[in-house]
Amino acid sequence: IGATLPSLGNMSLPRASAEAQRAAANTGYIVDPETRRAYQKNHELVPLSDVLSDNEAPPRSFVTFRGGKQEYVSEDVLTGKVVALFFGANGPFCCGFARNFAKVYRVVKREESDPFEVVYVGADKSRREFNRFVKTMPWLALPFRDNTAVFERYGVPMEVGYWPRMVIINPNDRIIFEDAVPVAKQCFQEKKPEAFGSLLASAWSDSISFGRFQALFGPW
Predict the structure, then answer these.
(1) Is residue 89 within 8 Å of 123, Cβ to Cβ?
(2) Going along 49-136, which residue ranges are E strands?
(3) Cα–Cα distances in Å, from 60 out to 76, 134, 215?
(4) Quick one: which of 57, 77, 95, 142 is 20 to 30 A from 71 by CA?
(5) Is the Cβ–Cβ distance between 124 and 130 less than 8 Å?
(6) How would you classify the pairing of strands 116-122 and 61-64?
(7) CA distance 64 to 58
(8) At a CB cut-off of 8 Å and minimum separation 6, what does 192 contact?
(9) Hey, which residues does 88 pair with through a beta bridge?
(10) pLDDT, tens digit, for every residue of 11-64?
(11) Cis peptide before 164 (omega within 30 of 0)
């Protein structure tokens, strides 16, 4: 749905478009960098709400649909857990991986208190595609936003050919595996999802960090 244009009244069309652009900016920013640059070159364009970031998410929170509806979860959910950062976007390769890895996830994480969690770090360009993908996931996701800096932080190229990528981080914010996707694929190809638990056990640490959002993802 596009941003609602203000009543024209005595305003000229360019001024009305500028007002609508400012109204859209108040509800989030354009997530895709390339699309954002296009709008910056032409301020008369009005961005669709589908390309705007999620401005309803509380600071340092995650989003999930695993309870059947959208819910925001605080960063405290990661305390004392091995975290898998799943980098990707709504597309054939990542969707196929997510569908299979969900089976592994449900085997190694049977209870909410189990010391493992996955966070999807998306490169999706539209809110619709992001929501459609996240609704298939039994884990958490960063709310819809520009995650370019997070991809760079972990050395993951912003190119679809390099996805999916899964970085495993111990409870003290130390990277243990730069990409666990090959291991995960082997687990579900051999129908041994529980074997992924051995990888997680090797990433365990008795030393844990609190308030982990900024350490893992940078400032909100």
Answers:
(1) yes
(2) 61-64, 71-74, 82-88, 116-122
(3) 9, 18, 11
(4) 95
(5) yes
(6) unpaired
(7) 13
(8) none
(9) 122
(10) 444 454 444 444 444 468 999 988 888 888 887 777 788 999 999 999 999 999
(11) yes
